[in-house]
Amino acid sequence: SxxxxxTELVPERAILAMIPWHKEEHLHILNIYAPNxxxxxxxxxxxxxxxxxxxxxxxxxxxxxxxVEDVLDRLPSHxxxxxxxxxxxxxxxxxxxxxxxxxxxxxxTAFTFSQSRAQGGRQSHIDKIYITREALTYIKEWQIEPSxxxxxxxxxxxxxxxxxxxxxxxxxWTLPLFILNNKEVTETILASGKNLQQRIVSSQRERSExxxxxxxxxxxxxxxxxxxxxxxxxAIPKIQQRMDTLxxxxxxxxxx
Length: 256
Known about the structure:
Elements: E1 5-10, E2 14-20, E3 26-33, H1 38-51, E4 60-64, E5 74-75, H2 82-95, E6 97-99, H3 100-104, E7 113-114, E8 123-124, E9 127-132, E10 139-146, E11 154-160, H4 183-205, H5 213-255
Parallel strand pairs: 3-4
Antiparallel strand pairs: 1-2, 2-3, 4-9, 5-8, 6-9, 7-8, 10-11
Helix pairs in contact: 1-2, 4-5
Protein name: Endonuclease/exonuclease/phosphatase domain-containing protein
Organism: Hydnomerulius pinastri MD-312
InterPro entries: Endo/exonu/phosph_ase_sf
């Protein structure tokens, strides 16, 4: 929280936070919780527009909007009241903001709020992240997933990158943790480890530049990495295919 400043625009409804980011740059995030009632929702966007005058324009506006702008975002499908959606649209035009998830997924259906069957079973996509049009290129990996908290809302997330940052590659190879549950891999490495112990003892008696504890251990490590990489190369495509199939089935179910 060091260096973060915040301005409460609407008590318990809207806070503008300025967060130190890269070098001298700051990220301005407008966090909102819009009223649920239509007339109050409309008035909220109008008040927010007035309160933002003279302040830095937000790079992101996010949280619970209690409003949808697209029929795809409600089940059963329907638009919200025109006055409220127009008030939000007016604010978006003023701030040059777009719905990031919808921009990347123009035809997809996904919901962030669900009622129980007893409540009517309605679903809606009311939790959003609005971003500037210029930043759309630098925001990736949009997801809607469970938050891990006891709530009836899903979590909308994305990875935000600074366009001034240098390109960063994949980095060094790391062991996929699921490989640790592969019995064949662990048994092979354990057997290799037992052989390593014997070779280390031998290398201490017959030490040379090419046969010593350091070179023996390096051979063991390289072999273990090769075994893990080979197993991962076989397993990952199957896992990815399964995940892709589940995602497609989920989208088809939601769109039905």
